């Protein structure tokens, strides 16, 4: 089966870019491009999105080899708002809408249990949710799912910061924040201080 490294190199050669030229276009080092093409590591989040834009393909095709053509992209994907950062003063979606940076294609199957207008994407920052969600990966959020169900991963605001964690309620007054990285301890917050923006329903980790 063709790997991401093969698709990336094939597209780079097709477009006539050297590794150094491509690296400059997406803001990484030529060494990073070389590592991607040797299958030593994979591009994440923002880099994956930039590569898809440069080569005029979907991030799903880069990641999995599926849905390369425009017709396929339109048939099998939806276009949703994409915000590159997980931090926002106030931590509410109305603020995020003012900070819209881009639109992104994500798999259409996501909306089988969601409304398309409720989906938006952000980029993960930090390693607290690894290995489930890696830093720089892009995640799809369903803003229509704000009721906490134990074991679900949610994006929420706490103070002036957005966070991504697995959440669990303790009664009506407390919420437990669980990181998937064992280096981070669980946190206990007052429910009144937590505003859930939505549930994570997709990640570029799992293309």
Automatic annotation (TrEMBL):
SMART domains: HTH_XRE
Alphabetized UniProt keyword annotations: DNA-binding, Plasmid, Transcription, Transcription regulation
Domain of life the protein comes from: Bacteria
Gene3D superfamilies assigned: lambda repressor-like DNA-binding domains, Umud Fragment, subunit A
One Pfam family of this chain: HTH_3
Start and end residues of each HTH cro/C1-type domain: 8-62
An example molecular function term from Gene Ontology annotations: DNA binding
Protein name: Repressor
Organism, scientific name: Vibrio tubiashii ATCC 19109
């Amino acid at each position: 089966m063709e790997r991401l490294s093969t698709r990336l190199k094939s597209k780079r050669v097709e477009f006539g870019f050297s590794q150094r030229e491509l690296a400059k276009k997406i803001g990484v080092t030529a060494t990073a491009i070389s590592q991607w093409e040797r299958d030593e590591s994979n591009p994440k989040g923002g880099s994956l999105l930039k590569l898809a834009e440069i080569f005029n393909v979907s991030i799903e095709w880069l990641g999995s080899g599926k849905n390369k053509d425009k017709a396929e992209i339109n048939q099998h994907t939806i276009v949703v708002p994409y915000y590159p950062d997980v931090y926002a003063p106030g931590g509410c979606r109305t603020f995020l809408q003012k900070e819209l940076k881009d639109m992104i294609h994500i798999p259409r199957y996501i909306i089988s249990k969601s409304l398309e207008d409720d989906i938006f994407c952000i980029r993960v920052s930090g390693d607290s949710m690894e290995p489930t969600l890696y830093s720089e990966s892009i995640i799809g959020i369903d803003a229509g799912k704000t009721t906490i169900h134990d074991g679900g991963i949610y994006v929420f605001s706490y103070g002036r910061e957005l966070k991504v964690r697995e959440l669990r309620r303790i009664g009506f007054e407390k919420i437990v924040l669980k990181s998937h990285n064992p280096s981070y301890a669980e946190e206990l917050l007052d429910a009144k201080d937590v505003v859930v923006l939505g549930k994570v329903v997709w990640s570029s980790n799992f293309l």
